[in-house]
Amino acid sequence: MAAIAQEDLACSIAEALQFVSHHHPADFVQALRRAHAAETHPPARAAIEQLLVNSRLSALGRRPLCQDTGVAQVFVRKGCGVQLFRRDGAPPRSLQAVADEAVRRAYCDPANPLRATMVSDPLGRRLNTRDNTPAVVHCELVAGSELEVLVVAKGGGGDVKARFATLNPSDSVADWVLQQLPGMGAGWCPPGILGLGIGGTPEQAMLLAKLSLFEPIDIQELRARGAGHPEEALRLDLYERVNRLGIGAQGLGGLSTVLDVKLKTAPCHAATIPVALIPNCAATRYLRLKLDGSGPARIEMPSPALWDGIPDRFDVPDAVRVNLDSLERADVARWRIGQTLLLSGKVLTARDAAHKRLVDLLQRGEPLPVELRGRVVYYVGPVDAVGDEAVGPAGPTTATRMDKFVEPLLQHTGLLAMIGKAERGPDAVASIVRHGAAYLAATGGAAYLLSKAIRSARVVAFEDLGMEAIHEFELADFPVTVAVDSTGETIYRHLTTPVWLKPA
Predict the structure, then answer these.
(1) Bridge partners of residue 196, in order along the sequence
(2) Where in the chain do CATH 3.20.130.10 domains reside?
(3) Distances, alpha carbon 329 to alpha carbons 56, 243, 340, 414, 477, in Å
(4) Is the peptide bond before 296 cis (omega within 30 degrees of 0)?
(5) Domain spanning 1-23+65-153+285-294: which CATH class is it, in words?
(6) If DSSP codes are grouped into helix, strand and coil, which group holds residue 266?
(7) Which of 14, 21, 248, 293 could pair covalently with 253 via S-S, beta carbons 3.0-4.6 A apart?
(8) pLDDT tens digits along 471-482
(9) The pTM is what?
(10) Residue 489 per-residue DSSP state
(11) CA 473, CA 151: separation in Å to the nearest integer?
């Protein structure tokens, strides 16, 4: 029998959440390095380089890899010989209560505050819980006297792309997966891991897919030795075929869409093959812990050699420098897809809530609280600043969520360009062409690196929206890729149907 204090469990989960906020798993960094060395497509190679620089800077600065610091997910394997107790003698609390305490402590840590994501009342007011609680807790009772805990911070960009289907026994699982990838877009910030759950019941398949993501990356070893059973053969087949799609890093094209394909299986009904698909993004964050009653779990720090040779800044010699404070539509018209721009000057931020308010004001014929004519808007919800930071980690959010607001803003405000991540839908691209605007892609998962290019930040409208308020950032050499230019050319050819429209 092992007696484990709930205080030690809460402390371990909290420390793990803080650790994974700024540390990639070592195998993920190594896989990124291999992908960078092999990449020949300049926009994709630049994106992977930014992810590597960001990984190094985040580990050194102990600040979040991504502004979306994730939903806290805690998977517990509790040995039947484990007894949980409280040191103060009070009755033990539920695992949910212990995990929520840990999340509250981790996400509200003043030394490294993490952005709260969770909202209550999903069909009603959707109020932010302010501390990222509740955690998502799963518990499995197993033999033995150990307590194993898998702590995950899972960003929304990956989970929102989850897919499920019940296939017929004669259907091809590989073909189904290949059919899903283009429609998933790039909002899950590839290159990353694809997790598959095959078999069981629908909810079991989804859980298997999620858990498969947190196994070591070993696809290169598997490629070297060859498949030994059908599961390995499927992994190899999908790895090769997915990467041949040409989606690439951040959807910009190139060789590496996935760094590995993982899967877990379970017995299922004879008439079905339940299949779940969940991707893990370029902000892969998880840690496994063991508690035996001797105190909180010990977290091993990775060797600094993991980042040897990775620079502390991103530099592109042939990048085009852009002064946002004097930007004109004629300048935007000269941009072409695939170009790297380094932006300096003032930019406004806005996400979903701010966009809705702006468009509602336009529809009512009321004045806007900010002047958008001749400006650029960045889709971002930053982490709170600490110390002498102008702003905390501030990477892009998925642009497609703002697609329905593009036409009214471009038509009525004179907005010149937008910055986000992933592809735009055909209606948004058509609006960009119609109004001679452009869409620029920043690297999702490189939030701390990008925040280094923000020299000042202030709230200028909708302060009540918190991280979704409209800020004005002062940029200095902020890196972006021209993703949709004013002629309608789009770099996301493998994700969307290009809209080859010309201005009237």
Answers:
(1) 263, 277
(2) 320-484
(3) 37, 37, 18, 9, 20
(4) no
(5) alpha beta
(6) strand
(7) 248
(8) 999 999 999 999
(9) 0.95
(10) -
(11) 34
